[in-house]
Amino acid sequence: MRRLCLLLATVLAALTGVVALPATSALAASAPPSSTGQRWALKVNGVYVSAEVNDSGDQNGKLRARSTTVGSWETFSLHTDNISGVGYGTTVSLRNEENGLYVTSEVDTSGAQSGMLRARGTNSGSWERFYVVPQGGGQFALKSAANGLYVTAEFNYTGGDQGLLRARSSSVGSWERFTFVPVDGAGDTGMPPQSSVTASGRHDIASWNVCANNNPSAACKLQYVDGDTVGANVASGVNGYLNHRPEAIFFQEICEKAVKPLELELESRLGGGWDVRFAPTYYKVVATDGTSDTGLLAQKTCADSTSHKDRGSFGIALAVKDTNTWYRGYTLPSPDKKEQRPALCATVPETGTVYCNAHFSSGSYFVDGNQAGDDPDGISRRKQSDALKGIVDKLQERGYTPFLGGDLNTTHASVDVLSSLYASHQECGQPTPGSPHDGAPTDGNNKIDYLFGPTGATYACEVVDPSLSDHRMIHATITL
C-alpha cells in the first residue's frame, strides 16, 4: 500500500490488553468492500438495477431498474447475518458497491414511494433483510422481511421514479422476477504471469487466528471490538512477539473493516509497504422452499461492535508486500448449510513467491453434549486439503515458490486428512520431510494451525502467544 503511514493517536499500554483507540472516521470510511467477495448485478425486464447515489435527501441511494450496463452503481454483494433460532443463510442483505451501504426497505414511507428500496443502511436488520423465492428459470423474487411483501420494479412510473424498486406486492409477476448476474469479485480472473525469479534465501511467514468476531471464549480479547482497535492490537502483537519481521502473515477469524486499519498499523509498526487483502466466509443462500442449491452465496457478517458499528463480513486476511500484482479468493468445498470456507492467495513477483491462506471447516467438538463441528468425520477437510493443493499446484506451475497454511482445524489425531499437503510440501513442525507430523500446540493442547513450504528446505518453527486470542501465533522460518 503506497500511502503515508498512520500516525498513532494512542500508544498501547500493554500487549496483553485491548486498548480502545478513539473512533477514526477516515478509517471507517476507507474500509474497502470485500476484496474478493462475489458481486452481483440485479436484472429485471432486461435492465439492471441502479442505486441513485447522486440523488439528495430522502431520495439518496434509491434503487431503480433503468441501466443497460453494469458499473459500481449496479453492483451488489450479498450478506447474511444471524437470526436467533434460525441461523445464517435464510435471508440476504444487499450491499451496494458504490457507497458500501445496505439496501433498506423504507416501510415507513407513504404514498407512491411506500416501501421503496434505498442503499442507505449502515447495519443489517429487519429492514435490510430479504427472503429469496425461486421462480424457475434462474429467476427469483425478493420478499422484504420488514413487511412480507415482494419487491416490484415500477416500470409504469415516469421521470426520476421510473423503474423504482418498492416492497409492495403480494404476488409475483414479471416486475417481481429478478436475475442475479455474476460480476466477478474473486480477484484477478486469470493466472499470474510466469515468474521470472527463482525464490531463494530465507523466508519468514506467520499465521494467526485472531478470534476477532464474537467467540465467547474469555481468551478472545478482540471479540466485538471495532476495526481500528483490532488493527492496532493485532499489529502490536505481531511486532512484539516475533523476532523477525515476517514477509507474509495469514490471519483468520477477522472482520472485513479491520483490514484497512490493520494495513496501516503494520506499516507503522513493522515498516515498509503492506497490502492486506480479505476473503469472506460464505453461506449458501437458502430459498424459502428450504433448498440451498440456489447458486447464490452470501457473505457471513460479523456481529456488530459493542458501539453498534457494522464490522463488515467475517473471513480471512492475507498481508504481503504491497508489490504484489495478483491475488485471488477461492471458496473451498464445504458441508452444505454450513460455513463455506475461504482460501486467499497472492503473488510477490520480485521474490518469485506465492502465499496462500486458508481456514478449513471445524472438526469434531461438543457444546452441551451436542456435536457442534461442521466436519466431524473429516470428509470436507480432506476435500479442502485437496482443493488447496490443486490451487497451489497451478501457481507453482507458473514458476512461483508456494508458502501456504492457516487454521486447518485438524489435530494430530486426524492429520491424515491433510495427506495431500504433506505429500507435496513440508510443514514447519517437521525438521525433515520424513519427520512426524508434529509441532507445538496452537489452540489449547492441540496443534491446528499449520505452515507449509517446499520439501527439503531448512525449517524452524515457533509458537508464540500475544494473549489476544484463543489461538497462538505460529511462525515459520524457511531457508531455501
Strand content: 25-35%
Overall outline = elongated
Report the structural category.
Answer: mainly beta
Q: Let me know the number of strands.
A: 28
The mean pLDDT is 91
Please give the radius of gyration in angstroms.
23 Å
- The low-confidence runs, each spanning 5 or more residues with pLDDT under 50, are 2-17, 19-31
Share in helix: 10-25%
The major pleated sheet works out as:
6 strands, antiparallel
Tally of DSSP helical segments? 5
Order of strands across the biggest sheet?
Answer: 3-2-1-12-9-8
Q: Please report the distance between the alpha carbons of the first and last residues.
A: 27 Å
Task: Indicate the topology.
Blueprint: H1 25-30, E1 39-44, E2 47-52, E3 62-67, E4 76-80, E5 93-96, E6 102-105, E7 117-121, E8 130-136, E9 139-144, E10 150-154, E11 164-169, E12 178-183, E13 202-209, H2 227-241, E14 248-255, H3 259-270, E15 274-280, E16 282-284, E17 297-300, E18 314-321, E19 326-331, E20 342-348, E21 353-359, E22 366-367, E23 370-371, H4 379-397, E24 401-407, H5 419-424, E25 426-427, E26 449-453, E27 458-464, E28 473-479
Parallel strand pairs: 4-17, 13-14, 21-24
Antiparallel strand pairs: 1-2, 1-12, 2-3, 4-5, 6-7, 8-9, 9-12, 10-11, 13-28, 14-18, 15-18, 16-17, 19-20, 20-21, 22-23, 24-26, 25-26, 27-28
Can you describe this structure in just a few lines?
With 480 residues, this protein is mainly beta.
What labels describe this entry?
single chain, 480 residues, mainly beta, 6-stranded mixed beta sheet, 12% helix
